[in-house]
Design goal:
Layout (H helix, E strand, L loop, with lengths): L7 H8 L5 H13 L8 H8 L3 H10 L5 H26 L10 H16 L2 H15 L4 E4 L5 H11 L6 E3 L7 H6 L6 E6 L5 H12 L3 E6 L12 E4 L10 H17 L1 H17 L7
Parallel strand pairs: 1-2, 1-3, 3-4, 4-5
Helix pairs in contact: 2-4, 3-4, 7-11, 8-11, 11-12
Length: 288
């Protein structure tokens, strides 16, 4: 058995990009599913990841293991602290019900609550505090999102921008994205929304920022996200297999904005009151 100086999950993240395509496919499957594969057989793992048994063996050999049982034992032990919570949550979500015949709004509502519950764990809470510290000590916050997640980047900018002036939106024109990245200073921070399917432009932008020494905050769905290795801190939320939903992301954004507002409450309240007064004076908002 290999002697690991770091976690097995970290080793997989670090090594996977140097492996052949099928082995990378297996690594990505393991990173997404490691909490539930500790008791599977080598054949089951190969079938679930849609690779051959030989690919599994070559991959675990590359990770320093001589046999599958030792690898399976380590991946099981690594998943154990979170596994009990995951199983408990899963059992709650699988209580028999009549969801199939329920109205669409009820199904969507229930699933949104389910993924919110799954997203909130000790790691997210700890990393949330780290993100607040990173943003608070930065000279400028740049935000980047593409496709549906451009809307998330814009929502964060809209809420935060009402009292926080050190913010820059990079999502509007990706044609000049690299030009804008090159203008970032080392004391600035780049916050990236990256969810499957990941776009090459976002990955390349994060890679460039990382090479420049810019701290990256990643909001994503899986630790197999290619940007994970470049991020200073990652906030991972659950996604639903049943429906597309940005509910956990919205909740996370609103939590970030409220906490950043609290950190600078006196100044934030002053700016919000000034904005409210200005909007009323210019007939932008309705006054009773």
């Amino acid at each position: 058995m290999s002697s690991h100086n770091q976690s097995l999950i970290t080793e997989i993240i670090n090594i996977k990009d140097s492996l052949p395509k099928k082995q990378r496919q297996l690594c990505d499957y393991i990173l997404k599913s490691y909490q539930s594969i500790g008791l599977t057989t080598v054949k089951e793992l190969a079938d679930n990841a849609k690779v051959g048994v030989s690919t599994v063996m070559r991959t675990i050999n590359a990770l320093g293991y001589g046999n599958f049982n030792d690898f399976r034992k380590d991946i099981f032990n690594e998943s154990l602290p979170a596994e009990s919570k995951w199983t408990l949550k899963k059992s709650f979500s699988e209580i028999p019900n009549k969801e199939e015949s329920a109205p669409t709004i009820l199904q969507v509502w229930n699933e949104s609550m389910n993924i919110l519950d799954k997203s909130l764990d000790s790691e997210l809470i700890e990393n949330f505090e780290s993100v607040i510290d990173v943003i608070s000590h930065s000279s400028q916050l740049s935000i980047l999102g593409s496709r549906p997640y451009k809307a998330m980047a814009l929502y964060l900018e809209q809420l935060l921008g009402e009292f926080y002036s050190k913010i820059r939106q990079l999502s509007h024109d990706t044609e000049v994205l690299f030009d804008k990245i090159l203008q970032l200073e080392k004391d600035e921070v780049l916050l990236v929304f990256a969810f499957e399917p990941y776009t090459n432009r976002i990955i390349q932008a994060a890679m460039l920022a990382h090479q420049m020494g810019i701290k990256i905050i990643l909001i994503t769905d899986h630790i197999s996200c290619p940007i994970f290795r470049y991020s200073s801190v990652t906030l991972k939320v659950e996604v639903s297999e049943k429906q597309f939903s940005v509910v956990p992301i919205i909740t996370l954004i609103e939590s970030l904005v409220i906490e950043l507002g609290k950190r600078s409450s006196e100044e934030s309240i002053k700016k919000l009151k000034k904005l409210e007064r200005t909007l009323l004076e210019n007939n932008v908002t309705y006054s009773y």
